[in-house]
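Following up on my earlier message about magnesium ion. Here are the inputs again, as you asked, copied directly from the submission form:
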Amino acid sequence: MKITDVKIEKFSAPLAEPFRVAFGVIEDSDSWNVKIMTDEGIYGLGSAAPLGFVTGETMETCYLVMKMFAQAFIGFDPMDIAGAHKLMDSMIHANGSAKCAFDLALYDIIGKKQGLPVYKVLGGTDPVVHNDITIGINPPEKMAADADKYVNQKGFKILKVKTGINLADDIRALQLIRKVSGPDVRIRIDANQGYNVETALKALTEFEKLGVDAAEQFLPWWDFEGMAEIKARNTTSVKIMMDESIHNIYDARRAAKLNAADYFNIKLMKCGGLYYGAQIADIAEENGVKCMVGCMQENKISITAGVSLVAAKKAIVEADCDSFMFYVGDDDGIAGGFDRAGGVFTLLDKPGLGIDLDF
Ligand code: MG
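Thanks, got it. Here's what our run produced:
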C-alpha cells in the first residue's frame, strides 16, 4: 500500500466557557485534522491539538510542520508505523502534536486494512473505559456548582479538579466539591506545576482528608528531583502523578529511575501519538508505575485514539479524555469513535478509529 495524498483541515468549535488552569487560560479549541489517502482506497484520519505552553507548538507552527510531513509521506507505506516515526523524527525534533496527527491516521489505516478497531490493533480486548470530567479553576462556589452538574445531573463518578494557584482556595473548592458530590465520587487534582515542594507536602495532608486519590504535576515540568522528593516524603494515601514532565520515552525512563511518580499522564499530543504512547505505558509497567491517558483541547478523533490506548494497555488504569465535552452543546459534533453514557465510554467495534469525516 502507498500513500497518495494528504489533506489538512482546520477544526474549530466554540468552547462553552474559557478553561483556566494554573499556568494559563485556554480560550480556543482549534485543532488540525489530517486525512491520509492510499492507493487501495483506504483513508486514515488523525488530529493535532497543539498547546504552546506544553508542546511548544502553535496552530501556525504545527501547520508548517504538518505540510512538511505531508510532502514527505507521498509514496510511503502506511503500514510502516516505526518507519513513519523514524522519518518524522529525522525531519524535526519534538512537535508531538504534528507527529501525532500522522501517527493516528496511520493507525486508522492499519486498523481498516486489518479489519480491527484500533484498540484491538494495540492488543486490547475490552472496549469499555471509565472516564473522568475536569473542573477548571474558578471561584470555589462556581467549581462546586460545576461538580454538582457533572455528578448529580450527568452521572460522572470521577472528577479531576484543577488547582495550583492558591492552596487555601484549592482546599475550599475541594471541600465544597466533596460536599455536593458525596463520599463515593473519586476525586483527583491537577496543580499544573503551580506548587513548590513544601506547599505540595502540606497540600497532600489536606487532600487526603478530602478523599483525593491522586495529585498531578505539583512542580515545574523540569523538576524531576523535586517530584522524587515529594514522592519520598509523601506519607499520605494520595498518589503522585506526572504530566507536563513526561513527553517521551526518555522522560518516562528518567522519572521511573528517580522514583518520581506513582502515575504518568500520557498525552498523545506530547509523545507524538499511539506508537510512543504505548511504549511509555510499557516502560511504566516494567517499573511498577501506573498510567492515565489525558488530553489537550482535542476533538474526538484523537480522543478516540486516547481511549483506545487506555483500553489496550494493562498499565493504563485511568482516563482523562474529556476535552470534547467542553464545547458548546457538550460535544464537538464529530460522530463515531465510541458511545458514551456519563463517564462510561464504549469503543465502537468498527475498523480503525470508527470515525468518518468528509474533507
Ligand atoms: Mg495535567
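One observation from looking it over: Residues 190, 192, 216-217, 243, 265, 294 surround magnesium ion (CB under 6 Å). Hope that helps, and feel free to reply on this thread.
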